[in-house]
Amino acid sequence: KSKLTISKAEADQDSTERTLVVDLGGGTFDVAILDVGSGAVKVLGVKGDSRLGGDDFDAAIADWLADMFFNALDESIPACPLSGLARRRLLDTAEMARRELSKHKQVNITVPGLLEDGRGIDGLHLTRRQFEVLCQPLVARMRSTIIGVAQEAQLSLPGLSEVERVTSANAGEEDDAEPTKKKRRRRSTVPIENVVLVGGATRMPLIGRMVRGLTGITPRGTVNPDEAIALGASIHAASLDGLIDDLRLVRAPPRRVTDVRAAALYREEMAKKRRHLEIETDSGRGGYFSS
């Protein structure tokens, strides 16, 4: 639905812009590359990670808090397992800390009553730099997903490391070797021109830096990350009711079709049954995507 938010605002442009949409929600991560403009929205590639979201960044902070808490306990007193309520307190506090670190470089954390005897965390400092180090494995997964969707769309990213560049090239050769491929697709020379961040978790500075480092483009700030999904759903509902004539979503494949090969097989099957996913406007049709 976030893709519809972008397309409705820009599909009427005379020129076509290649846009990367990065959507990090509370529990999922999705990426799409779109050609937007000239009366149509064409989806060049989609990919996602259904087990990665803002909650995982909160969990990284909560784990760190628990480690710091137990490390500070008197060794003569055996550490007790945290209750469900204590773990909930840690996660809630971690979420608030993550939000604060999106605006400030340091946060002071206090979590009372983690144990039955009243012991808890009192005045523990967490810097943005420490937080970003904790989250490096999660950011690496996001980076890998973006590289994967660029590979699917046959696009090059200027910020790839040498290892990533070689890996991406090898993956492309494997795809070209598939029996279903009649001829090799040429890698597009049209660069990504716009980057849009969707989902409240993308407010974390390290997300914008990672995307900017990969694409060489500063993410656009014209779309509210917290409202994009709701706006996209509203546009979709309005199109179904016939209130919007110039943009219509006919059908979408299952959301979890994110693997490149699985998506290709799905599209071939849909083509045989004449059940295409289309984004139609007055002047043309778009392509496939999973919302």
From TrEMBL:
<keyword id="KW-0067">ATP-binding</keyword>
<feature type="region of interest" description="Disordered">
    <location>
        <begin position="166"/>
        <end position="188"/>
    </location>
</feature>
<protein>
    <submittedName>
        <fullName>Uncharacterized protein</fullName>
    </submittedName>
</protein>
<keyword id="KW-0547">Nucleotide-binding</keyword>
<dbReference type="GO" id="GO:0005524">
    <property type="term" value="F:ATP binding"/>
</dbReference>
<dbReference type="InterPro" id="IPR018181">
    <property type="entry name" value="Heat_shock_70_CS"/>
</dbReference>
<dbReference type="InterPro" id="IPR013126">
    <property type="entry name" value="Hsp_70_fam"/>
</dbReference>
<dbReference type="InterPro" id="IPR043129">
    <property type="entry name" value="ATPase_NBD"/>
</dbReference>
<dbReference type="Pfam" id="PF00012">
    <property type="entry name" value="HSP70"/>
</dbReference>
<dbReference type="GO" id="GO:0140662">
    <property type="term" value="F:ATP-dependent protein folding chaperone"/>
</dbReference>
